[in-house]
Structure formats: C-alpha cells, structure tokens
Amino acid sequence: MEVQETRVQTDRIFTIPNILSMARLAGVPLFLWLILAEYDGWALLVLMLSGVSDYLDGKLARRWNQISSLGRLLDPAADRLYILTTLFGLTWREILPLWVTAALLARELMLAVMVLILRRHGYPPPQVNFLGKAATFNLMYAFPLLLLSDGSGWLPWLASVFGWAFAGWGTTLYWWAGILYVVQVRRLVKADTVD
Predict the structure, then answer these.
(1) Distance between CA atoms of 7 and 5, rounded to whole angstroms?
(2) So what's the pLDDT on residue 102?
(3) Residue 121 in contact with residue 189, Cβ under 8 Å?
C-alpha cells in the first residue's frame, strides 16, 4: 500500500480521466440490469467499454498530468462496483458458485476494516498497487468469459475453461493483495504506537 504513490496534480473535477471514471460508474446499474435480464451480449459490451475506460483513465491522467484526488477515489470505486455487481449477477444466475462470491466479498470486507483502521490513525485509503490491479485485471477477464460460458457448444466450453482459469488466478491474487494490505496497515499502526 503506497499511501502517497503519486502526487495529486490537479484539483479539477471535470478532467477527461474523471469523466471516463464517472461514465464507468454510471454504467454499473445498466450492466446489472443487462445481466439480470439475460441480455448477455449487451452486458459484455458494457463490461468491455468499462475495461477500456479503466485503462484509459489512468493512462490519460498520468500523460496529461491530471491525477486528482477525485480520480483516486473514482477509479478503485468503479472497479469494485463492477466486481460486486458482476458477482451478484453471476451468482443470481447460478453461473458463479456462492463460495467464490463469498471468498471475494470476505476480502472486500477485510479491506473495508483496514480502511477504517487507517482512517482512525489519520491515513488515507490505500492506493491500488500492481498486485491489486493484476487481480482486478484477471477478474475482469474471468467474468465476461464465465458469462459466455452460460450455454452449450464449444464456445461456451472454451469460455468456461479460460474463465475459471482467470477466476482462480484473480481470486488468489485478490486475496494476496488483500493480505499485503493488512500487513502494511499493521506496520503503519505499529509505527504510530511506537511514536
């Protein structure tokens, strides 16, 4: 957890990267409705556009020196909301087993507790690290593939194989990143008590 990974370069709200993140957030309820209504093609399109905007908002923020406090909140919030929404939708449709959903939600709960501990000690929420990004990347590949696996034939079978591979790696990396956050929070809190 890098508490001060990169410095905020602007306080502007309406930057291109922030607008991309806001659009991504606005797509969450649409995405959920599409999954629950079983409009899988449209749901996949929304998810793909979300992935492209996720890549672009960070890239453009760095390139155009538009890293902002709001962007630092919007980007991980959008990532988490898409993950939670997809978990809910795929679990509701019985594509994803409940134990996978429970494992990913338990990690989110653990991080929420860590954020509260950090806040109590005067630290901001943790910045997303490479491992956390890699976990999200794997899960964002897993979910559309698992959605595609809901059917019969060779394409759904192939989507299932690759979807579960990405889901396994994503879940493992998600927990690994979470455990590293816990260790880092513990060190910060311990350093605070020594001072």
Answers:
(1) 7
(2) 94
(3) yes
**C-alpha–C-alpha distance, residues 60 and 15, integer Å:** 10
Q: Which residue has the tokens 């605070």?
A: 192
Q: Which residue blocks in 121-153 are alpha helix, DSSP H?
A: 130-148
Cα separation, 82 vs 35, whole angstroms: 12
CA 187 to CA 193: how far, in whole Å? 10
Could you read off the pLDDT of 75-90 as tens digits, one per residue?
Answer: 778 888 888 898 999 9
pTM given for the model: 0.75
Residue 83 burial by Cβ neighbours in a 10 Å radius (0-12, 13-18, 19+): buried
Cα-Cα end-to-end distance for the chain: 20
Q: Which of 135, 165, 157, 159 shows the shortest CA–CA distance to 146? A: 159
Residue 142 near residue 166, CB atoms below 8 Å: yes
Using alpha carbons, select from 82, 171, 158, 189 the residue that is nearest to residue 132: 171
Determine the 3-state secondary structure of 10 from DSSP.
strand
What is the four-CA torsion angle of 164, 165, 167, 173, rounded to 10 degrees?
160
DSSP letter, residue 126: P
Burial class of residue 77, CB neighbours in 10 A (0-12, 13-18, 19+): middle
